[in-house]
Design goal:
The protein has helices at 4-19, 23-35, 37-59, 63-68, 70-93, 96-100, 102-106, 109-121, 124-133, 145-178, 182-204. It is mainly alpha-helical. It has one domain (40-204). Helix 2 (23-35) runs parallel beside helix 10 and helix 3 runs antiparallel to helix 10 (145-178).
């Protein structure tokens, strides 16, 4: 069991990292503004499911592959960039009137949850970040390293749910007012599309 001092230090570091602007919290913000608070929460749960994937990858050594193999790293990041580009295309082709009409019904919670998972697991930098970050707080004298890694990852996910959930609630509340105007809805979609393209470009040009 990790000492309480180590856990508190790790929680503080995780809190600061979750608050720092990045692709994931920007993604939560745009999806919450477009589709509402509950949709934003579902996206957060999807992203955190992706974090669990990366946590297991680090705990059981799979992440080393992405750190050592340029091919594996490049393949995964280009898959992620392609998916973000697809989301951008969807956002650009959606008008304000269709948001109020049939397209709204098509955006169900399962789609948003899946979107969050794919957004997270196709970013190999997350696995590499976990590989560099989590072991710093593990101590071989405290027991099996892989158990400590999973415990730390659980604390990180808990912090992420709280911070990103707050972003989802705030953005979803403001977005509810903004979505009453078809013109503003169109602007929101164009903005979301621009964000998706920016994230795709950033991911595609990321180096190990």
């Amino acid at each position: 069991m990790l000492p309480i001092e180590t856990q508190l230090t790790f929680l503080l570091a995780s809190l600061l990292l979750a608050l720092a602007p990045g692709p994931d919290n920007i993604f939560v913000l745009t999806q919450s503004a477009l589709h509402g608070r509950s949709a934003g929460i579902v996206v957060v749960l999807g992203l955190c499911t992706g974090l669990l994937f990366h946590s297991c990858a680090v705990a059981f050594g799979i992440a080393v592959i992405f750190q050592s193999s340029a091919l594996a790293f490049s393949l995964l990041k280009f898959v992620g960039a392609a998916y973000l580009t697809y989301l951008a295309w969807q956002a650009f082709r959606t008008s304000g009137s269709t948001i109020q009409g049939q397209d709204t019904a098509k955006i169900n919670h399962w789609q948003l949850y899946r979107r969050g998972i794919i957004m997270n697991i196709t970013n190999p930098k997350v696995s590499i970040f976990f590989l560099a970050f989590l072991p710093q707080f593990a101590d071989p004298q405290q027991g099996a390293i892989w158990i400590q890694i999973l415990l730390l990852a659980g604390l990180f996910v808990m912090t992420t749910v709280l911070i990103f959930g707050g972003i989802a609630v705030l953005a979803g509340t403001l977005g509810r007012w903004l979505r009453e105007s078809a013109r503003i809805q169109t602007i929101l979609n164009r903005s979301a599309g621009t964000v998706f393209l920016g994230l795709a470009l950033k991911l595609a040009t990321t180096e190990r």
